[in-house]
Amino acid sequence: MNEYSVSRRLRRSPLSRASLSLLPFALIVACAWPASAAPAAAPEDAALAQRLRLEESLARIDRQLYAAYFGQAYARYPSIPRGTLEAMAYVTTRWQNLQPARAADSHQHMPRAYGVMGLYHGEGFADQAGDGARLLGVPAQRVLRDPAANILAAAALLDRELRADGVDAHSPVEATRAALERYAGFAPAAGGAAKSAVQSHARASFAFDVLSAQDKGVNDRGIVVPERPVRWERAFDAPALLRLRAPFVRLNVAADTVEALGADGGFRIDPRDETLRAPAGSRTEAAAAAEKSTDYGPALWVASPYHSDRTSYDSVTIHTMEGYYAGSISWFQNNPYSVSAHYLIRSSDGQITQMVRENRAAHHVGVHNKTTLGIEHEGFIANASWYTAAMYNASAALTRHFCATYGAINCASAFKGPGGTGINVLPASVKVKGHQHYSSQTHTDPGQYWDWARYYNLLNPGTPGGGSVIDHFESSVGHFDTSPAYSGSTTGISTASLAERNCTTRKNGECSLRVLLKDDAASSNAWAVRLLSAGGTPGSNAALTRANGKVGFWVYTGASGVSAAIGVDDSDGTERSVARAIPVDTWTYLEWRLDDDAQWDAWVGGANGAITAATVKLDAVWFYRDQTSFDVNLYVDDVQVKN
C-alpha cells in the first residue's frame, strides 16, 4: 500500500482511534458529531460523506494542537512573519501529520514527506528532517514523528533562510519569496543548466502557493491561515506571474475599472479571466505561448525527459500524487526511476501542468503505460481536503478532452462506484479509472476519498433531471475558498468577515456555507460584498450554458434588508444580475435566467449588460445591505445550474 496514516499524540480525551475502533460505526458518528448536524445523506456518495464527517471531527482535535505549536515556533523564531508557517503546512499537508509507509510503497517513488510540515528526509530530495533536527539538537526520528518537533524543525530551517536575506517579522509578506524557494527542499538541477529552469520553476511554484494561501487566507475545518495581502508585482516579475497564474487583478469599484497595479510596459488584464496578459507581439507573449501545452490549451508545458513509445489511446488513469504540486513537477523532471505522468493538477485552483505529450507513453502505471493517459492530482489519499471543486472541475474538463479526442475513450464508461483502500481490478471496458483499478499494481490511489460519483457526473453533464449542483458544501467550501473581504470590489465590511463551511444550519444534505459579515468601523459605505467563486478565476469554475439556462442558490439570514445577486463572466467582461431581496428567517431559493437580458447589468471589462456567450462561468455571489454596526450571518446552500 502507499497510504499515508495520521499519527496521534496521547491525550486525556476519552475517545481515541483505538477506542473508536471498538465501537459500532453509527455510535462513533453520534459521539464525534453534534446531533443537530446529522441530516440526510450527501447527494453524490452517502458513505463517503459519512466517513468524512468522522475524519473531520477527529482532525479538528489535532489542528487545535498544531495551532498551539505554531505559536511556540513563532516565540522561538521571532524573525518569521506570522502566518507563514500555517501557510506552509497548508500547502504541503493540509495540516495533517504525515506518517508514510516504507519507501518501496511510495507513489511513483516520490520522496516521502513527514509530519505536519511535510519535511523530506532525503530519498532524492533534501534531508530537511535531518537538517532541522541538527539545528534543534534533537534526534531526526523525533522530527519525523512528533508534530511539535516537526513544526519547530521547519521553523528553524526557514529562519535560517530568512535571516540570510535580512527578512524579519516586520517585513512585507512578499519578501519571504526567495527564502521559501530555497527552503522547498527539491532536488538540485542534475547535469547543470539544462534542467535548472524547470527546477527553478518548481521552487517558484512552491513559494507562490505559500504566498497565495496567505493572500487569500484560509479558515476551513480548523485550518486557519491569517489573511495578508501580497503585492504580487514585488514578489515575482511579470513573466513569472503569467506562468504561475497569479491573482494579479485588483478591482476598483469606485472607478468601475480593473487595474493591474505595478504592471507597466503594456501588460494588461484579460477582462474575462481577470489575470495578467503580456503586451501583444512582445517577446514575453511569445515566451508565454511557448510555455503553453499544444495538446490541451489550458495547461502549462513543463517537459519531463521520461517517456517512451505509445501503442494506443485506450484509457485514462486517475492518480493522487502522495505529494504536492511543486514537488511533483520537480520529481517528474529529475528522478532516478524515470517515472512521469502526462498531466498534474493543483488543488487550490485547478492549474494544470503537462509534462509528457499525449502521443508518448508516460511512466506511471507499469505494464499499462503504452495504452493509457495519466493525470496526477495534488494531495495525499488519506486526506480528502485536497480534492477541491476546482481540482475536480479541471480534471473532468481534461478527461472530457480525452474523450472527445480519442475514439476508444468514452466518458460514459468511467467508473462510478465507491472509492476503496485496496486494489480492485476493473475490466478493460471501464475507460476512466484509478491506479488501483489496474492489474499488476501495488498502489491504491486515488483511494477511498476520491468521489467517483461526483467525477462521473462532471464527465457526463446533462444527466436526467435537467440540472446539477455546482457547490453543496458537504466536504469543503467548494469554489468559495476566499474570504468575503478578499476582492478589492468589496466595500463596507471589515477584513474580520469570513466564509466557512458550517454543519449546523443548512438547507439540504449535511452542510452549508456560512458567510459572516462584520462592519468596517472606518467606513460609512453601504455594504456591497463580492463573494468570489474560485478566487474569481473562471477556469476553476463549472461551465454554465446560456441557452435556457438558470443559476441559483438557497440562502438563509436572520437579518433584514439584505439582498443578493450573482456575477457571471461573459465573453466581453463580467455581467452582474439584478438584486433579489432575501426574506428573513426562512430558506429561500433565488434564481436568475441566463438568457433574459432584463436580469443583467454591465459591470467590468467592457460588459454590455447581457449574457451573450454560449457558455459562461460563475464569477461571484453578491450581497448588499445598508451600512450597520451589527454582524450579519448568511447561509448559502446548493449553488446550482439548470437547463
Write out key terms for the chains shown.
single chain; 643 residues; alpha+beta; six-stranded mixed β-sheet; 31 strands; 26% helix; globular; disordered N terminus
In short, what is this structure?
This protein is of the alpha+beta class and 643 residues long.
Topology readout:
Blueprint: E1 4-6, H1 17-20, H2 25-32, H3 46-76, H4 84-93, E2 98-100, E3 113-114, E4 119-120, H5 128-136, H6 140-145, H7 147-165, H8 177-183, H9 196-216, E5 218-220, E6 223-225, H10 232-235, H11 238-244, E7 250-252, E8 257-259, E9 268-269, E10 276-277, H12 283-290, E11 300-301, E12 307-309, E13 315-320, H13 325-333, E14 343-345, E15 352-354, E16 360-362, E17 372-377, H14 389-405, E18 432-434, H15 452-459, E19 467-471, E20 498-502, E21 512-517, E22 527-532, E23 543-545, E24 550-557, E25 563-570, E26 573-577, E27 580-581, E28 588-593, E29 600-604, E30 615-625, E31 632-642
Parallel strand pairs: 11-15, 13-17, 13-18, 14-17
Antiparallel strand pairs: 1-2, 3-4, 5-6, 7-8, 9-10, 12-16, 14-15, 19-31, 20-21, 21-31, 22-30, 23-30, 24-28, 24-31, 25-26, 25-27, 25-30, 26-29
Give your account of this protein's structure:
The strands form nine sheets. Strands 22, 23, 25, 26, 27, 29 and 30 form a seven-stranded antiparallel sheet that branches. Strands 11-15-14-17-13-18 form a six-stranded mixed sheet, with helices on both faces. It has 15 helices and 31 strands. The longest helix is centred in the first third of the chain and has 31 residues, at 46-76. It starts with a strand and ends with a strand. It is α+β, with helices and mostly antiparallel strands and 643 residues long. The relative contact order is 0.10.
